């Protein structure tokens, strides 16, 4: 009787349950690949070895990012130490430069899905060709052939390796023989690799054989968690040691066949029997933590794996970006980029005539929009084309070899950041670009894909999830089909056109809750769909007149009008159903004395509510008020009655003698009373004055500083 054939996606899911202690003793040729990685097609190892000019075993030492000549794309130059040469020519001790796409320059970051990223300390086999990125020439620079599939990533804790479609259970002589059989060149060792040698020794002499007590994980809490949300996992056990080591989770980007270590700053406490750690979506290798077993690696490189029978689940993963100077990670939010509430995607001239593709994209976009109130729109065709930092959210098919080999498509996100008064950095998504391979057999729908096709709507729904600022997860698989849109794998014939409410939708909703709040710096925040502009409010004859505008309303949406005396505690005034109109009004006949704040809650058909940014009105008084006064802490709150939205409000602090102590330029998100915050410079106790100027009006507000 033949052995049962498991669906490829189920096979990938089962891999996540295996402990590395069960790995066989040696590795021969790599196992056959399945087509289950996110928007990647398996690359034949023989083809890869033939296409590469240079094949080396190397370790990343340092990185430096840079703009291309057109200032549209960011690249990263990685400096590596070469240990072994498997193809081509390389001088011993000569540093190697490998250029990868994406990176961070100043306060601008750029990330690409399904694309190789390297991190200091990583090592593995690299299959390289001379770098040929347009406008990004670097002397003697190389690039990985086929991007992610041009890197076989080593695990120097266990002396294993993996790539997107293959795993290598031991980095022994058989592994290298299999590689040199493909490259056709004898291996040359250019420098010793001490980390790998130590890992091989540990495999040959387990802890028990060396008389060392191995660490043990006995439990952990909670069992299910959100990655990238500062959620803390508490791990219990024994033998962890008193010196901090590392905690490593299954890598959700590859389905958990590899582990990814948390950044050192995410280890909150460490003792011999208890560890507390934040579960990241941006690890030390910029990967998200995924479901499955995790492991603790002690300071002396002993390893404990969590019990297979105690499942650990990452429900969803919120995208984080890292500030390069401090290493601190932040969640990124959305803004009102298009002036109509959010973002507009524009197809290029080649994709625009494909009505079926645009219809599939529109269905996927509406799915996210109606479930999470993400303010997205599909606009008219653009005249130009190209992916990059140009303020346009591009939607296009690639031309020629714009996409690396065997990549079906990817999303490029460009982020900007600014420093808030409290010292934190606010990052926002400046631009979202999507590009798909025009040579793929796509099913554009609404029919279902054949077994040889990729469903375009399924792929777009997933990539829009990345645009929503969600990372990959490792999802349950039923009947060979993953149950979550943000599952790391998409296969031929797969049909996943519905969002999972408890995982996909709630993940997007969590991003939205942070995006619709007013930012303390930077551009105006996103308006929850279907709103196209901030709520307008004005006082007239003792009444507050409110109005708002919408577009592309979803079925079952309603608006809740709310009022507050302090923008903190809210009371519902009315429920206004959507009618398909583009303009709505409401009158509050009895506003509060002093300042009244108003806001809209967009209520979705699925029961979720999204609050829009509040706006205030007041009968009379100064244009700008400050509190607390006297000031006692590092922050000062401003209540500014603005005639219009502006990014030109300047505030400066002077003492009684007219000496200048510092100032800031603030963004005013909307007309009406806005609540803003500034960080005070170092001040002694005494009397000061805040001078303000918005380009039209100006004034002064005295305040007292007390210790």
UniProtKB/TrEMBL annotation:
The lineage of its organism: Bacteria, Pseudomonadati, Bacteroidota, Cytophagia, Cytophagales. GO terms for molecular function: metallopeptidase activity. InterPro entries: Ig-like_fold, Ig_E-set, IPT_dom, MetalloPept_cat_dom_sf, Secre_tail. Residues 1-27 form the signal peptide. Keywords: Signal. The keyword Acetylation does not apply. Residues 215-309 form the IPT/TIG domain. NCBIfam families: Por_Secre_tail. This is T9SS type A sorting domain-containing protein. It holds the Pfam family TIG.
